[in-house]
Amino acid sequence: MVYCFSYYRYQRTFAKPLQTARGEWFLREGFVLRAESDFGVGYGEIAPIPEFGTETIAQACAFLDQLVDAPDLVEDAAKLAGLPCCAFGLSAALAGRASVPARDYRVAGLLPAGSAALAQVATKLDSGYRTFKWKIGVAPVDVEQALFRELVAQLPMGARLRLDANGGLSVAALQDWLSMLQDFSEVVEYIEQPLPVGQEAEMSRFAAASRVPVALDESLNGASGARWLSEWDGPLVVKPALMGDCAALLQCLRPVADRVTLSSVFETAVGLQNALCFADQLPGHKLAIGFDTLAAFTDSLMPFSSAPVIGAGERAQLVPETIWNQLT
After folding, report:
1. d(Cα 247, Cα 107) in Å, to the nearest integer?
2. 5: closest CA among 59, 52, 67, 47?
3. Residue 45's beta-bridge partner residues?
4. What are the average pLDDT values for consecutive 10-residue runs of the chain, which has 328 residues?
5. Residue 281 domain flag
6. Structural domain count of the chain
7. DSSP-assigned states of every residue in 12-61
8. Which of 95, 124, 140 finishes a domain?
9. Distances in whole angstroms, Cα of residue 63 to Cα of each of 71, 101, 239
10. Nearest of 108, 94, 123 to residue 215 by alpha carbon
């Protein structure tokens, strides 16, 4: 097989800085990769987040430079060791669109941290969202719990809420949250990554004693993260763009697909297409996806706005070549 590779680097500024337990996030950087072979042209996105255990932008750039100069490098899997985002983007570009039919996906509405969520949830309910994700671990526990009660009071019957701490809670704070949440188990779908990476044993212990499931997110990334795909009994929040080769990841996820929430890394339309084509190959995956991120930027690298459903018809608008041409 003869390959020809090229890539472009992008930088995107958030329309509003994203506030998490790790602080504010202002700039998103990554790469769009073009792979040409005897079978045609494919596109993949490489969007590292080093704080989540991936390679750095510089490491990804160095690999891509090598790949452009020596396309046969694609056959050397060892060169991708420690470069999960490069592995994902490269495998997605080489695979192209999946042969299985495109599906519709329900989307979980992303709410801002703090009191701003109270106004935003009403707007999203009117738009049709029924599953929501709210960032916690940003303000003191008592303040956020008071806001949580106000937030839940606005939700209609059947709506579901995910609480995402980004590993920002202490053990005491988690204990406090889980104690309070026992009365809201009908509403709270799960609390996501409450403790930092490395404290999975403590999270498992709390989950076993709680009516509210505990999900892993950041713990799944990095060199040792894949083990939890088979060892964790609760929900799994998977950012496929951070987790390596598509085919290998599919093998890991198919047995646990009913517990998987696929989640965004604030990618362009190329990365969104990569992720959704990946999801199409997980028929057991049913939970609302975490891709209410399409309006996070004001540039033109995403052809449509966030919505409560990403439909197969709308997905036809995700033409990677259009994004590629904007970057050239």
Report:
1. 24
2. 67
3. 32
4. 91 86 84 93 96 94 96 86 95 83 96 93 97 94 98 97 96 97 96 97 96 96 89 97 96 97 96 96 96 92 91 89 93
5. yes
6. 2
7. EEEEEEEEETTEEEEEEEEEEEEEEETTEEEEEEE---GGGT---HHHHH
8. 95
9. 11, 33, 21
10. 108
Residue 65 DSSP SS3: helix
Q: Is the pTM of this model over 0.85?
A: yes
Element (H, E) at 161: strand 160-164
Q: Which residues pair with 11 in a beta bridge?
A: 29
Domain match, 212 and 171 both: yes
pLDDT at res. 97: 65
Question: Are both 158 and 291 inside the same structural domain?
Answer: yes
pLDDT value at residue 39: 82
**What is the torsional sign of CA 172, 234, 296, 89?**
positive
Is residue 153 situated within a structural domain? yes
Same domain assignment for residues 71 and 123: no
For residue 10, the model assigns a pLDDT of: 97
Write the burial class of residue 318 (CB in 10 Å: 0-12 exposed, 13-18 middle, 19+ buried). Answer: buried
Buried b (16+ CB within 10 A) or exposed e, 191-224: bbbbbbbebbebbbebbeebebbbbbbbbbbbee
Token pair of 56, please? Answer: 């750095």
The pLDDT of residue 316 is: 87
**DSSP conformational letter for 166:** T
Per-residue tokens: 137: 């671990």
Q: Residue 237 sits in which domain range?
A: 105-319
Which one of 79, 133, 135, 286 is the catalytic residue?
Answer: 135
Instruction: Reduce the DSSP state of residue 7 to 3 states and report it.
Output: strand
Domain containing 37 — which CATH number?
3.30.390.10
Helical ranges in the chain per DSSP H:
57-69, 84-95, 116-127, 141-154, 171-181, 200-208, 228-231, 246-253, 269-280, 312-315, 320-327
**Residue 239 appears among annotated catalytic residues:** yes
16 is catalytic: no
CATH code (residue 211): 3.20.20.120
Which of 95, 122, 139 is the C-terminal boundary of a domain?
95
